[in-house]
Every structure is written in structure tokens, then in C-alpha cells.
Amino acid sequence: MKEVSLYTDGACSCNPGAGGWACILLYNQHEKTESGAEPETTNNRMEIKAVLEGLKLLNQPCIVTVYSDSSYVCNAFEKKWIENWKRNGWLTSSKTPVQNQDLWNELIDVKSLHQVKFVWVKGHASNEYNNRCDSMARAAIDTISRS
Hints:
This protein is an alpha/beta fold. It has five helices and five strands, in the order βββαβαααβα. A five-stranded mixed β-sheet has the order 3-2-1-4-5. Helix 1 runs parallel beside helix 4. It is globular. The chain starts with a strand and ends with a helix.
């Protein structure tokens, strides 16, 4: 299987408010970028959406390392929060409904096609691809503001 890197980021002008997401997919010397925006959303939804849309770009099963500055997204999988939420009927440890279930379920389905590992990166730091994703996500928000 091909080994690819997927850098992702989500952004919101207000939380909730207009939001954007972006991803950069890297394979050997190839790079593919994608971004999008929604008029009324949250930062967490955009972080999940960035990973989801990035994985959807893959046209065959791959070994994927996802780099995200969202501890929410990384911990959901690496700390097995998802498994606990599903086992508990999509309730958090405090017995409140898990937010963004629609995106989580879609991400679970798309993720199942690949071998995926999540790596947390510090946002707004020295990671070139994370910084590019942040810029792309914010630029996507601007497209909503102009329309």
C-alpha cells in the first residue's frame, strides 16, 4: 500500500460562525490540496471535515499519517474516545451527546478503508504544511464573506 501524509486544519472566524477547512495530501513528490468553507459551523466541525475530505481524496487503500493541530480529532482516535463514545451510545463520559456525530460517523467509514495514524502537531508553530493549511482554511472563509 502507498504511504501518504495528510496535513489538515480547520478554522472559524467566530465559534460558531463562518468556517473553513483545508488539507494537503503528500505522496512522494506529488502534492494535492483541497479546501472548503461553510457559512455557519464550528472550529471542531471544520477540523473533522478537513481530515474527512483529505481521506476522500484517496482513490485506493493507503497507509496514512494524518497531521493535525486538533487534539480533539487526534485524541478521538489515538486515545480511543471514538470506541468509548460508540460503546456508550454516543454519549460522552459526562453522559451528554457527542457533538458532530454525523461527521464522526462519516469519518469512521472513510477511515476504515485505510490504515490511519494520527499525529498531533502544534498549531501556528514551525510546521510548514500545518501553517499552509491554516492559511488555506482562512482563505476559504474569506470566500464566504465575499459572496
